[in-house]
Amino acid sequence: MIKKIRTDVWFLPLLCLFILTTPSQSQETPPTGAVASAHPLATRAGLNILNSGGNAFDAAVAVASSLAVVEPYSSGIGGGGFFLVFDNKKKSYVFIDARETAPGAAFPDMYLKKDGKFDRLKSLNGPLAAGIPGLPAGLVHLSKKYGKKSLSECFKEAIDLAENGFEVGPRYLRMAGFRKKSFVGEAKEIFLGGTILSLGERIVQKDLASTLRSIASDNASSFYNGSLADRLVSGVKQHGGIWDKSDLSSYSVIERAPLYGKYEGVKIISAPLPSSGGIVLLQSLNILRNYELGILQETDRIHVITEAMRRAYRDRADFLGDPGYNDIDVKKMISLRYADQLASDIKMGHATPSDSLKGLTIDKGKDTTHFSVLDKEGNRVAATLSINYPFGASFVVPGTGVLLNNEMDDFSASPLAPNAYGLVGNHANSIQPGKRPLSSMTPTFLESNDRIGIIGTPGGSRIISMVLISSLEFVDGKLPAAWVKKERFHHQYMPDILQFEKDAFSPSLQQELERRGHELKEVDRKYGNMHAILWDKSRGKVYAASDPRGEGLADLQK
């Protein structure tokens, strides 16, 4: 082990995407607000709300509802997500859990064939793959409890975008092309134009506009209890799903306490269960505190970060699931003592074979969205939303415009069955009625004495490793532009492969890692779509950045 031998050293590059300076501004509040999201139209919707007197929570509702329209491959009213919020007036952190739940008729073996093998198509396509949506309830909760403006005001731009349409871009076409064979019925007509859309063509979703109006006018009462709920259940059942009206009426948002940790003087506030993100992130950082990353050679640095990922993801597979259904000792799992135990068998010269770690015995064998918001009052939101796979279940409930999620695939159908992202799990994440599937979504705040970061990303199982790598960039004093564009690598325990983006590892680095026993795989294209904000209190500056891999926009409030 290489123990820490220095104190923190901070430096700041000269350039970032956006800078606003007001030296006289109090440290208690930032000089301006900011929004960073995956789509320019959603970012503008959030900024318009801030400019009209709304707070960060109002802006988050506007961004989320707009993304549900213009980014249907990543999130939507038929999905769910998590909101990590900080109320500066109350000085309180809250994690709002709007994760989907399993229908009451769900059972552990529902996606297994007669021979016991996992039928992936059933957990990915069509309404049988859909959990009960949580996003409408989550937006209502965020608006009513924390916002200033009405839900109708915050939904206005989303409704306009659904009613009048928006132009599709390259990312949309890429995602739609990836899933085009799975679309059926109204989903095929809406999102492919019957065949496939061309760049710049408009998508109009009048049924979705009507649904959004209904949610805004009655605080989602009709969605969960009224005529809209009847239509949703009827449409799902007619096409092979198992929803019941009681599944919708019994859905509730849960406020949870975030997880807290510390690394190199930086406070980390992150997602609790049913997200695995906070636990895996904190475990990894707790392991890495035993090493002086700043003085390690590149190969050693990548090696120990990989070994930390490997062990934290192992615990994810073995132990984690919905805390309402499992007795999980989270305090122990994120303790420094436990991290030292995990780190004790790391060898600098050799990779640890995953199947040698105590845990599951496994045969060796994409889409979400994130946005970040800061307002002039110092309130902030890190929100990661999802319908799971691109375009979710590829099924729109007729007459509603609601594109359903396929979050049931995030459960463990079998201890030997990896999901669509290659993640394995155990009984803790098995399917049970009303249960929330384990997630990798990791909305996170990073805080030092004079710097506050808001960070998160989509990316399936790679979300946590991306947030980890970018958190280390924050610790090194870098700005959001560096966090979001940093080259990425990933290890998730099983399969026992170290994945990396093109150009992340030099040929010589690859050779040395392979010599130590790491099995390497260069991914086909760059991944992730991170959106981040930094408030530098000492300099009176706010910075915002969107991932150059995507088509998003980060901008400051005027």
Describe the protein.
The protein is an alpha+beta fold and about 550 residues long. It has 2 domains: about 35-255 and about 375-430, no CATH class; about 255-365 and about 440-530, Serum Albumin, Chain A, Domain 1 (Orthogonal Bundle), CATH 1.10.246.130. It is about 35% helix and about 15% strand. It has 18 helices and 20 strands. It has a 7-stranded antiparallel β-sheet with strand order 6-3-2-10-9-1-20, with helices on one face. Strands 7-8-13-14-18-19 form a 6-stranded antiparallel β-sheet. Strands 15-16-17 form a 3-stranded mixed β-sheet. Helix 1 (about 40-50) runs antiparallel to helix 2 (about 55-70) and helix 12 runs antiparallel to helix 13. It starts with about 35 loop residues before the first strand and ends with a strand. Residues about 1-25 and about 360-365 have low confidence and may be disordered.
Query: Strand portion, in percent?
Result: 15-25%
Oligomer: single chain
Strand order of the largest sheet: 6-3-2-10-9-1-20
pLDDT averaged over residues? 92
Largest sheet: 7 strands, antiparallel
Spatial gap, N to C terminus: 49 Å
How many structural units, i.e. domains?
2
Q: Which structural category do the helix and sheet elements fall into? A: alpha+beta
Summary keywords:
single chain; 2 domains; seven-stranded antiparallel beta sheet; Serum Albumin, Chain A, Domain 1; alpha+beta; six-stranded antiparallel beta sheet; 558 residues; disordered N terminus
